[in-house]
Amino acid sequence: MKMRVSAVQYHLHTIHSFEEFAAQVEHYVKTAQEFESDFVLFPELFTTQLMSIGDGAGKALPIEALPTYTDQYRALFKGLAEQTGMHLIGGTHITSEGGKLYNTAHLFYPDGRIAEQKKLHITPTEVKEWNMGAGDHLQVFDTDKGRIAILVCYDVEFPEIVRMARARGADVLFAPSCTDDRHGFHRVRYTCHARTIENQIYVVTTGTVGALPTVDFMRGNFGQAAVITPNDVPFPPKGILVEGEINGDMIVTADLDLELLSLVREKGSVTTWRDRRTDLYTDWS
């Protein structure tokens, strides 16, 4: 089984309407369609661009305003997924539930279904500045191309949750992120590599680029998309199938061979998944 994946280095800039946002999203989706991709990944928090529309007095909308765009956001991505026949992972969008804000990843299926994964681990900034709530359940998603999981940025820095996803059959992890400097970027990137080695899975990651000068905590972005593999003979020596130009406005695309994962789990130079010492620590399966 193979799947073709594209990851969007989404360029944040000030806009003046939802229609501008929709046009930019459609541009990236149609570009990925030209490459006949099966999955398209957008970054975490890319819909904060909607906050730059402002209140008419030149002041950015507050984070609490983003859930008011949820219906339009979902309708946009649902329609594009149905039109193109691709699975769209619409980065994350801020949703509201029970009076609490959540950083929620969305998976849009080609048949119109919509699935969600709330961010499970919340950064200090998200708690202090945005009063964000944490999700309480890991989802694993079945698709006609394979079983996947979506973990958002900070989530991938916690090895236990990725172990759980692999134990439940996920072969590909999509990790949308949003980091404002090199330190944050490399924390996410290095741990993505670690997760591929520990679990013998693929990780597809991307981040926001550009800037929103009027939006607090979104003024700086440092991002790069990458498709990351285990470090073994069937794969590139550095474990990178493809990566973008840092902070560039672009899309990267690569083919994932899921049969190679089964091969290295059984006959690889190392067999890290098989060789877990579940007599010493938790067997998440």
From TrEMBL:
Domain of life: Bacteria
UniProt-listed SUPFAM superfamilies: Carbon-nitrogen hydrolase
CN hydrolase domain sequence ranges: 3-258
One Pfam short name: CN_hydrolase
UniProt key word Lipid biosynthesis: no
PROSITE patterns: CN_HYDROLASE, UPF0012
Keyword Hydrolase: yes
Molecular function in Gene Ontology: hydrolase activity
Keywords for this protein: Hydrolase
CDD domains: nitrilase_Rim1_like
Recorded family membership: Belongs to the carbon-nitrogen hydrolase superfamily. NIT1/NIT2 family.
Name listed for the protein in its UniProt record: Carbon-nitrogen hydrolase family protein
Taxonomic placement: Bacteria, Bacillati, Bacillota, Bacilli, Bacillales
